[in-house]
Design goal:
Elements (H helix, E strand, L loop, with lengths): L5 E3 L16 E3 L3 E4 L8 E5 L4 E8 L2 E6 L2 E6 L3 E3 L2 H7 L23 E3 L3 E4 L8 E5 L4 E8 L2 E6 L2 E6 L3 E3 L10 E10 L3 E4 L8 E5 L4 E8 L2 E6 L2 E6 L3 E3 L2
Antiparallel strand pairs: 1-5, 2-5, 2-8, 3-4, 5-6, 6-7, 9-12, 9-15, 10-11, 12-13, 13-14, 16-19, 16-22, 17-18, 19-20, 20-21
């Protein structure tokens, strides 16, 4: 299964004071908020576990986020969508009188399972004879609900429809705790100067700094991170910063 290049999340509107109107996700561990998509970029601050934020974009293993008006990048696998009720409550202005919240829909905040690889027509049924509901841009995240031959039923936000299944790319699944998958010794080179850590994530302590084009052996993977061995020592680095040597 190939790594995802880019999928975009809908950006929430900003208020006049620069703060975001609502949050979409929260952190599942303490994370470093960086200036760019990579561990070699400057750390702006460290986010606490369960920090609420707005997801703007995912690029490879990194997520572009808005944290109460501050923009930056964090490791994407340590983000989870907020429950629907929490999102709705966050959108309620404190200065306004209480009003009933609409019942939660099972179609809200669904995690995308696939990404479109081309601009597609979302249709009301399987087949080109059915009505076009809207157009999905290349790189749109969708949830696959059903596949019937060359057609796939998908969910985009709260809208359901059908698209040509050949233009869908499966997204990497979110790893669960302990989801460590061994890899038969695979030789690789680092692509940039990077930090090697004690565990799969930027919140783990630093073991050493590896220079670009350092030869390593990949022995396991967990989500967007790879466990490597170098001179008898094991450590973790982002998969996006390794190049396999055949």
């Amino acid at each position: 299964m190939s790594e995802v290049d880019v999928y975009r999340a809908r950006q929430r509107p900003a208020r006049s004071d620069g703060s975001v109107a609502s949050h979409t996700h929260r952190t599942t561990a303490p994370l470093k908020l960086r200036k760019g998509a990579g561990s070699h970029y400057l750390v702006q601050t460290t986010l606490e576990m369960h920090q609420r934020l707005v997801l703007l974009e995912v690029r490879g293993s990194w997520a572009h986020v808005n944290v109460d008006g501050r923009l930056g990048w964090v490791v994407a696998i340590y983000l989870e969508p907020l429950p629907t009720q929490a999102v709705e409550e966050a959108e309620t202005d404190e200065a306004t009188a209480k009003r009933p919240v609409a019942p939660s829909s099972r179609f809200v905040q669904q995690q995308p399972t696939h990404q479109t690889t081309a601009r597609l027509k979302l249709r009301s049924g399987r087949g080109t004879a059915h009505q076009v509901l809207c157009h999905l841009e290349q790189g749109t995240g969708v949830k696959l609900l059903e596949q019937d031959g060359a057609w796939a039923k998908v969910q985009v936000g709260q809208r359901l429809g059908w698209v040509a299944s050949t233009y869908l790319l499966e997204l990497p699944k979110r790893p669960v705790a302990g989801d460590l998958i061994p890899i038969p010794n695979q030789r690789a080179l680092t692509t940039i100067r990077l930090n090697a850590r004690r565990g799969p994530g930027d919140h783990h302590s630093l073991i050493r700094i590896l220079q670009a084009d350092t030869a390593v052996v990949v022995i396991a993977r967990q989500g967007a991170w790879r466990q490597i061995e170098r001179s008898g020592e094991t450590m973790w680095v982002p998969a996006s910063q390794l190049r396999t040597v055949y």
